[in-house]
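Methods — Computational structure assignment.
A single polypeptide chain was analysed. Its primary sequence is given first, followed by the predicted tertiary structure written as structure tokens.
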Amino acid sequence: MRFKDQIDFIRQHMKRNKLRVATTILAAMMGCAFLIVLASVGFGLHKTITDDVLDNQLVTEIQVPGKEESDEKITDEEIQAMRDMDHVIATVKHSRPEAEASAMLGEREGYVSPVLVDFKEEQKAGLVLSEGEMPKSKDEVLVGYHFAQSLLTEEEQGQADNGEETKGFAGSILGQTFKLELTPYEGDAEPATWEFTVSGIMEEPGKDWIVNNSVYIDNSFVAVFNSELALNESFSEILVYADDLQNVGTITETLKEDGYYVYSVTEELGSMDMFFTALKAGLIFVGTIAVLIASIGIFNTMTMAVTERTREIGVMKAIGAQPKLIQKLFLMESAAIGIIGTVFAIIISYGISFLANWLVPIIIKSSMGEEGVDDINILISVIPWQLVVIASLISIGVAMVSGWRPARKATKIDVIQALRQEL
């Protein structure tokens, strides 16, 4: 029997029992769709959280807090060695004086965060300004996007303490000269004041809840601050920047081997990937149970098909049909049920995924009110092609396994008894 004839034979028998076959396909479709949609939630959550991590951090940044087996600070020679590593475009040292800092501009005053930096390395690292330019002299500084908002009058400070909204300095902060007062956290040293001019404003943070009121000062002031305020040392952190995300992991491992404490976005993503891999595997397992339940319907349908076609099977054997051909025909029929159900399941799953991704954020936004509406970016469901392949293999495979037993039963039907059945 040619393959085309086999297909026609299966089509005719499926048309003969349309309702039963349709309900069986429906059961297979629901089981496969449940598997895809359930697992897609794991993929959606994984993508949402991963995108959020990558959006909130500079992905090529590697933080080096210190050494693993020593309390000593990282030396300039060691920093230079980091700069000489392959695929490292910049190594930045951020020093913060152990002192409380406040900026004063006229009658306005506000707490700020002074950071002593090397501006050349900051440019290599990709520091972006929203306004102004990089400092050209030591008394010029860069300020954070919210620096001007943190400068308040006494009246505005009182309003802020009462929870009222304040706007801070309303004019352009560019070119303004302000006083920076530092008061040591410890010791008997008196507060000291320096004057700086704003040459540039850093870009706005990616998230509304991040407030950047930093003041970037030339690192030559480290010795000046320590001397004036009788500070022993300044707190510092080292940031290493890779030329590409794919090289972050290699640089991170190299720094670990050299005995440094290291943190990078790859560390966080690695832990997240392990968790979500286990979660997605668990969801696929639960979804597979639904497919197995649907397979009971396929088994019953194929068993009834064998019973109803006993005489027909006997005729086929009588005219010389081999048992393997008979078994193949019933396996192909059960596979056809699985394939049709899987195709419909894939189409429905993508529709449900699209609807969930459109509807759920709207529900969340409406429950939150007007505030923060534009900040929500959630993917409830993501269906990658790998998930479609896995679900299809499971669904069609289970359908064929369900039809295997009835197909074997068909090959063992006695010809004489089969021909007598309807006589």
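Note: The radius of gyration is 35 Å.
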